[in-house]
Amino acid sequence: MDITGNAFVTGGGDGIGKASCLVLAKEGAKGILVADINLKAAEETVAEATAASTNPSFRAEAIYLDVSDEDSVKKAVARMVESFGRIDYCVHCAGTGITGSRPVDEAKFDDLKGSLAIHVHGTFLITSLVSAAMKKQDLATVDSAHPERGGTRGSIVILGSYASLFPVRYMVPYTAAKHAVLAIAKTAAMESAAHNVRVNCICPGWTDTPMLRHSMEVYEGMTADSLLETIPINRLCSSYDVADAALFFCSPRSSYVTGLAYLVDGGMALTMKT
Questions:
Q1: Cys-Cys crosslink for 173: which of 97, 112, 196, 263, Cβ 3.0 to 4.6 Å?
Q2: pTM to 2 decimals?
């Protein structure tokens, strides 16, 4: 995959963010800043990524990050640039799950505000500040053997959701926020292409993470069996299924791909009624 640069991963303490850190380290990344609101979890990921790394120059650090707080995001991005020199890849996985299952006429405004703060405000802040940093970076060659493929200043991978593309019953705060996340990604991709910065959005289906297990506790009727009924591949998505997609979007092999909403859903979209 030619992953030899430095990565900034949000939500790297567990789930998809942690898997992304481990995959990047294994595939040859030079450095990773693991950012999470749970600093201890981020530090544990640093240790595991270091053990999994294949680049002899590998270095990883952990930092506290609250993506809903502008100062916190500014400090994390500044730390990434100061400590690692440049941001070649940003994988933005920080998020929160659903807090309940209610129809629109019973949904709580506080739940909507909470989901917007983490997913929408967080994605805006990360995308805006990382884009600004990447635009200042020197242009790197995508593929020295094929100069016609041009150069890159970085790749931003944003974690959206199946709910970024399709409505999910009784989950309006989460669905609304994830729709907005995709809008931010697409707009950033359109604006950043001229600066050789790519932005793509991965939209996973039901992924076996601590967040999903919490959602099963608060969403009435949601069980592993009920979810499997919606998935043609007949298994839950693994964090590593998503991390592998993130790896592709970070790598030069996706150098002509930007602004994409990329489903990793086991075929769920095939079952949607039209």
A1: 112
A2: 0.95
